[in-house]
Amino acid sequence: MLSDYHMHCKPYSPDAGDYMDEMAQGALRRGMTHICITNHVENCTQSPEFPDQFPPFGDWGWEHLWMTYAGVREKYAGRLDIRLGAEVGSPHYLPEEGLDIYARPELEFVIGSVHNLRHAKDFYYLNYPEDFDNFRPAVEQYLDEYIELAGSGLCDVLGHIGYMQKYMARQGKGFDMMLFEERLRILFKTCVEHGVGIEVNTAALSDTLGDFLPQPSVVKLYRDMGGEIVTVGSDAHRAEDAGSGIREGFELLRTCGFKYVCLYEEHVPKFVKI
Ligand SMILES: [Zn+2]
Ligand SMILES: [Zn+2]
Question: N or C: which end of the chain has fewer CB within 10 A?
């Protein structure tokens, strides 16, 4: 069993390079048995000051997405278990909209990801200061957003905690997320209390950062605090990356003491032995 529970596809994710069928094919080539398609839904993070943000997922999109999904699921039936989910940007910024998305009948699984602080650009676009202390309050605020998100009921797992570490690394900068252990402990306590999981995101393994997100010591902290719900995702935007790093992600989970990885059906985690 190998599951990749985070990937994007054309045309629903503006930054994706391949269609859903191609993503499924790519995942199959890498030996995946289960995947979940999780396109960007940035309806809760729209801000007139930052037009670079992805546009909201349009009403036309849901039915179109469902039709595409139904066809692909059928095509790969018996070979690859395909589910439909979404990666929703900070649903707690607009909770009513976030709840509408979470409750969409098409979606079995929702990753909640903080890509930007409130009224700020996506971390992807930032220039990181030389002196980390100048950036520290942003990381604190970032983790506070995840704490709120974890208690919001608007997602099933928290996506790629430490997202900015990927972009900082590209600028030759970085920090140890364990500097924020106190906040992380509050975060994971909230997760465990609310039945919210985390994802181990493998996309930055092949990036400058060369590591998982969250970093392994943070994954271990989550486990040590009683965290059991975990998914692994490549965050692939192209077919050739589908399933990339998933084996390594499973290995990390075993090293951290996890006995199970989660699949999702209608927002309910299914624990599968690893
Ligand atoms: Zn993301
Ligand atoms: Zn993603």
Answer: N
Which residues are within 8 A (CB) of 69 and not within 5 positions of it... i.e. 6 or more apart? 20, 37, 82, 84, 106
> What gap in Å lies between CA 198 and CA 219, rounded to an integer?
8
Ligand of minimum distance to the alpha carbon of 123: 1
Token pair 């965290």 is at which residue? 227
DSSP state of 121: -
Q: Which ligand is nearest to the CA of 241?
A: 2
pLDDT 10s digits, 91-125: 999 999 999 999 999 999 999 999 999 989 999 99
Output the CA 30–ligand 1 centroid distance in Å: 22
Q: Which residues contact 150 (CB under 8 A, 6 or more apart)?
A: 158, 187, 190, 191, 194, 196
Q: Which domains does the chain have, with CATH numbers?
A: 3-273 (3.20.20.140)
Ligand nearest to the CA of 89: 1
> pTM of the prediction?
0.98
